[in-house]
């Protein structure tokens, strides 16, 4: 295996931030969710099923995604609501929306420009008509079936690199699933939503060559002749769902507290990161006590040029940080 040199100054800074997130979230209540656009919603749960390369052909012309997403929410406003706005990546189309007992719901969709952020950033604005009015304080839900292509947002976020690719697949939640929110405040909804936390469950199907990484607890793994299927759920409410699929190797410690998805030639660097994470956790545990819950934290390596990110369940760590 290739021996990569770890930039420990950069790594320990990120480790400190990650462990503070982990320990703080494990010891405190989630931040109170904010409203979502022009209707006041508290999104409580995402339950997703995603197929990467649904045709099983890992080729550029087949780099697509399809999925279903069940969203549970509470009307936090003072008035009844009958329509829920949704935001999707501009190349994803809503296929169907169904409510309780599979009843089909009416919806509309149109690609529009962001009004509050940038005229070159576009989203697919959808609106779902509920079967009746959702009264204040009451919970509702519906399931959206959708699909299409993801090529990132180079016109506004060239560092994110969200895409479905044969070499590396990284569809962030803002591009891989519907998000409740008004298109008139889409920039705020998609960017400044770190206080909008929810539980998630996700089942991801990918061609057999891929190992799928996601923050949260691994709840299942299946194999078919053509596909690997991985299931995850959040340990704690989170503000994002990060998914990556590549020809990863997986390194864990004996207690499964840390999981590191790394490229095959970065085994030595991943081992150094694992050691640093365990040492840092021991230091913080000595200062402020042990974690109050049995949970894990996931490190996902991303290629050079991608933007890193951290949340309560995981961190995206760039190749340059892993290898220096």
**Uncertain stretches of 5 or more adjacent residues:** 5-37
pLDDT averaged over residues = 80
Q: Helix-strand pattern, N to C? A: HEEEEEEEHEHEEEEEEEHEEEH
What's the total count of β strands? 18
Strand content: 35-45%
Give the termini separation: 16 Å
Q: Please state how the strands of the largest beta sheet are arranged side by side.
A: 4-7-2-1-9-12-11
Main sheet makeup = 7 strands, mixed
Q: Supply the number of helical segments.
A: 5
CA-atom Rg in angstroms:
20 Å
Tell the overall outline. globular
The percent of residues in helical segments reads 10-25%
The structure class reads: alpha+beta
Please, could you describe this protein's structure?
- With 324 residues, this protein is of the alpha+beta class.
- The chain contains 5 helices and 18 strands.
- The strands form 4 sheets. The protein has a 7-stranded mixed beta sheet with strand order 4-7-2-1-9-12-11, with no helix packed on it.
- A hairpin with an 8-residue loop joins strand 5 and strand 6.
- Helix 1 packs across helix 4 (267-288).
- The chain starts with 7 loop residues before the first helix and ends with a helix.
- Residues 5-37 have low confidence and may be disordered.
Question: Which structural traits does this protein have?
Answer:
324 residues; alpha+beta; seven-stranded mixed sheet; five-stranded mixed sheet; 5 helices; 18% helix
List the topology elements:
Elements: H1 8-27, E1 41-52, E2 64-75, E3 81-89, E4 92-98, E5 107-113, E6 122-134, E7 139-149, H2 173-176, E8 179-180, H3 186-191, E9 199-207, E10 211-214, E11 217-223, E12 227-233, E13 243-246, E14 248-252, E15 258-263, H4 267-288, E16 297-302, E17 309-310, E18 314-318, H5 319-323
Parallel strand pairs: 1-9, 15-16, 16-18
Antiparallel strand pairs: 1-2, 2-7, 3-6, 3-8, 4-7, 5-6, 9-12, 10-13, 11-12, 14-15, 17-18
């Amino acid at each position: 295996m290739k021996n990569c040199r770890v930039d420990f100054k950069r790594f320990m800074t990120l480790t400190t931030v990650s462990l503070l997130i982990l320990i703080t979230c494990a010891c405190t209540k989630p931040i109170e969710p904010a409203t979502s656009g022009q209707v006041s919603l508290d999104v409580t749960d995402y339950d997703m099923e995603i197929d990467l390369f649904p045709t099983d052909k890992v080729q550029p012309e087949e780099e697509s995604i399809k999925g279903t997403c069940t969203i549970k929410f509470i009307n936090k406003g003072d008035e009844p609501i009958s329509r829920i706005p949704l935001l999707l990546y501009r190349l994803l189309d809503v296929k169907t929306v169904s409510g309780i007992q599979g009843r089909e719901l009416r919806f509309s969709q149109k690609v529009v420009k962001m009004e509050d952020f940038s005229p070159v950033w576009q989203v697919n604005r959808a609106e779902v008509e509920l079967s009746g009015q959702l009264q204040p304080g009451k919970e509702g839900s519906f399931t959206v079936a959708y699909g299409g292509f993801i090529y990132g947002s180079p016109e506004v976020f060239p560092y994110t690199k969200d895409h479905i690719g044969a070499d590396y697949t990284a569809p962030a939640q803002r591009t891989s699933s519907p998000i409740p929110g008004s298109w008139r405040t889409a920039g705020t909804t998609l960017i400044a939503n770190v206080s909008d936390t929810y539980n998630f469950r996700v089942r991801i199907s990918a061609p057999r060559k891929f190992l799928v990484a996601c923050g949260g607890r691994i709840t299942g793994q299946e194999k078919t002749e053509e596909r690997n299927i991985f299931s995850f759920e959040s340990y704690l409410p989170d503000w994002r769902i990060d998914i990556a699929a590549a020809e990863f190797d997986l390194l864990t410690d004996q207690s499964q507290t840390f999981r590191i998805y790394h490229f095959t030639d970065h085994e030595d660097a991943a081992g150094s990161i694992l050691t640093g994470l365990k040492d840092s956790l021991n230091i913080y545990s000595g200062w402020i006590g042990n974690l109050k819950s049995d949970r894990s934290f996931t490190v996902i390596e991303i290629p050079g040029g991608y933007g890193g990110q951290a949340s309560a369940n995981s961190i995206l760590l760039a190749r340059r940080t892993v290898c220096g």
